[in-house]
Amino acid sequence: MKATTIRLITRCALGAALFITAAGATAQQEATQPVIHDGERLTFSVRSSRFGDMGQATMRVDADTTGGRAAYRLSFDFSAKVMLFKVSDRTRSWLDAGTLTTLRYCKTERSPVARFDEDVRVMPTLGQWSDGRRTYLLGSRMPLDELAFIYFVRGAAHSMDGDAITVARHFDEDRNPIRLTTRGDVKVSALGDSVVARVIEMEARDARQKNGTTRMTFYIGTDEASLPLRIDTSMPVAGNLTMTLTSVVPGTRVRERITAMSRSDVEESARGGQD
């Protein structure tokens, strides 16, 4: 066999191996589900780098419906008064009860320097989403939103062994890909104790930010509940915010129930019919 032929076969084999590896990673990321506990309620103390203690924020999960479909409603609420000004963030996300993917996403944010409202409807069967003004192509077959990604990080944290991963699961293609990087395990103060947490940094495209990027750091508990023990983020006027978990009302874990696209379908789709 000629040397050129051997080199060609070697290159093809390496290319196939790289493709299979990438497809497998895509399938794994799409199959990873947000950690959802029906009835869960989390309360956080909130501290600002500029103004000190700012009160509390809550996250909760409730069974609901949207557009006639069974769903889990994720809620985030934060409101505080800073001197003469008020800042607030009220966010809602409805996840399909079967696929745990976004069906609707609403956000209302207020501060002295910014006012932001968003109401998104996802149409998975059409592969589209709408903000009420225009319709866009979905950025993922298994779409998530900003709030749902917190629960996704809870699901992904334990499988991350030190490597960074990129995830293209935001409903808005302009926000993909999202990069998750683990920074190891540390002890943090939460729930009135010193608790071991896995540190996950998230970086995503965000046209609302001056540098075009949003960065958040999550400290995820290492037990089965995968609680977000601490979240470092930022907000207009308030600056850098540290949210520390102070109390938990546990809920019932919703196990993975992929109905719109089974695992085998996800893997086949990732391979792209290249067999």
Describe this structure in words.
- By secondary structure, the chain is of the alpha+beta class.
- 18% of the residues lie in helices and 50% in strands.
- It has 3 helices and 16 strands.
- The protein has helices at residues 3-31, 146-156, 263-271, and strands at 36-38, 41-48, 52-66, 69-82, 85-96, 102-111, 114-123, 128-130, 135-137, 165-167, 178-190, 193-205, 213-221, 228-235, 239-249, 252-254.
- The strands form 2 sheets. Strands 9-8-7-6-5-4-3-2-15-14-13-12-11-10 form a 14-stranded antiparallel sheet, with helices on one face. Strands 1-16 form a two-stranded antiparallel sheet.
- Strand 12 and strand 13 form a beta hairpin.
- Helix 1 (3-31) runs antiparallel to helix 3.
- The longest helix has 29 residues, at 3-31.
Instruction: Work out the oligomeric state of the chains in this entry.
Output: single chain
Broad shape: globular
* Main beta-sheet strand count, sense and barrel state: 14 strands, antiparallel
Structural class designation: alpha+beta
Tell me the span between the first and last alpha carbons. 26 Å
- Count of helical segments? 3
Instruction: Name the helix and strand elements from N-terminus to C-terminus, one letter apiece.
Output: HEEEEEEEEEHEEEEEEEH
Number of strands: 16
Unreliable stretches covering 5 or more consecutive residues: 1-30, 258-275
Radius of gyration: 20 Å
* Range of helix content: 10-25%
Q: What would the average pLDDT be, to the nearest integer?
A: 83
What's the arrangement of strands in the largest beta sheet? 9-8-7-6-5-4-3-2-15-14-13-12-11-10
Beta-strand fraction estimate: over 45%
